[in-house]
Amino acid sequence: MAGVSGTQKKEAEDRRESRTRKAVVIAQARAEQRSHRRTALAALARHVLPMLNLAWHFIKVRQLEALRRLREEQPKREKPLPHFATWLTVHNTREGYSGDTGGAF
Fold first, then answer.
1. Is the pLDDT confidence value at 86 over 90?
2. Top mean-pLDDT range of 13-17, 45-49, 96-100
3. The pTM of the whole model exceeds 0.85
4. Distance CA 67, CA 30 (A)
5. How far is the C-alpha of 4 from the C-alpha of 9, rounded, in Å?
6. What Cα–Cα distance (Å) separates residue 38 from each residue in 34, 47, 48, 51, 64?
7. Measured on CA atoms in the order 93, 95, 98, 103, is the torsion positive or negative?
8. pLDDT beyond 80 at 2
9. Summary mean pLDDT of the chain
10. Is 52 exposed, middle or buried (0-12, 13-18, 19+ CB in 10 A)?
11. Residue 63: how many CB atoms within 10 A of its CB?
12. CB 67 within 8 Å of CB 29
């Protein structure tokens, strides 16, 4: 890529690795939850269907909360890089430039 420094490449690679790690952790949590649901519901299989439905619902709610907490623990995305229009507004040196592009350049 032209005009991309080594630091920017490293930061982009770090962000990509962070997203990959996050996806792996969430996939592992989902797999564990799936196996837990199967074993828990197998134990309740001898009960009537409404009991199974209730158990399924509450297990799923608990697991969704656990996934939400897991996602919240992950590092947040960094502030995105400014766009060219923002850069141009800040760096424009024309006489009488008001800073408002009117949506067009």
1. no
2. 13-17
3. no
4. 8
5. 7
6. 6, 15, 16, 15, 16
7. negative
8. no
9. 79
10. middle
11. 17
12. yes
Domain segments of the chain as ranges: 14-75
What the block records as the tokens of 58 is: 């509450």
Give CA separation, 84 vs 71, 87, 97, in Å. Answer: 31, 5, 17
Question: How far apart, in Å, are the Cα atoms of 18 and each of 14, 27, 70, 82, 102?
Answer: 6, 14, 14, 21, 38
Smallest Cα–Cα separation from 43: which of 28, 32, 56, 30? 56
pLDDT at 65 over 90: yes
Between 87 and 14, the more confident residue is 14
Among the listed residues 70, 57, 76, the one whose alpha carbon sits nearest the alpha carbon of residue 30: 70
Cβ 26 vs Cβ 71: under 8 Å: yes
Q: Is the pLDDT of residue 1 over 50?
A: no
The torsion of the CA quartet 67, 72, 74, 78, rounded to 10 degrees, works out to 140
